[in-house]
Amino acid sequence: MGEGPAAPDWRRETKRAALLLGLAVTLGLGTNALSARPIALTDPRGPGALPERAPRIDAARLRVALPQGGVLMLDARSERLLAEGKIAGGFAVTPETLDEKLEALFPFLSGARLMVVVCDSDDCLTGDRLAAALDSRGFPDAQVFEGGWPAYQAAGLPVEAP
Predict the structure, then answer these.
(1) pTM of the shown model
(2) Residue 56 and residue 34: Cα distance in Å, rounded?
(3) Half-sphere exposure of residue 159: CA atoms within 13 angstroms, side-chain side
(4) pLDDT tens digits, one per residue of 136-146
(5) Crossing angle for the helix pair 125-136 and 98-111, to the nearest 10 degrees
(6) 20 to 30 Å CA-CA from 44: which of 20, 64, 67, 155?
(7) Who's near 77: CB < 8 A, 6+ residues apart?
(8) Which one, of 36, 58, 37, lies nearest residue 144 by Cα?
């Protein structure tokens, strides 16, 4: 009679399981680090942290503010979405392009009594990130338009055709 399969070596299996666990953790951490919206794992203020939610402004308040002047409109949507239409008189700027555009924007930023950031949607973090980037450069009063671009268009606010 032949013997059945040999009993697995528990040491070898434990090492194998530890290796697989280490590989999974490394893969997960690497994916998180390369993600466009990484999860802050240690420091809630670290580079992967989500920005604090900036103050919001709705269409009714913006309608009142626009005729009074001094409103700087910042369009934080992607280039692809800007091709659908732009904010009339606004500037296309994202957190990633702010530094390269800061010199040209400075006269407008320093003269604005209200800065309004329009993003893809209300839950788009780009608007909050741009408001935080402006704040860190000495312009603390940026507000994010409630509802983003869809709400801006629906409210009939000034738009330039593509």
Answers:
(1) 0.69
(2) 29
(3) 17
(4) 999 988 999 99
(5) 70
(6) 20
(7) 92, 118, 119, 120, 126, 149
(8) 58
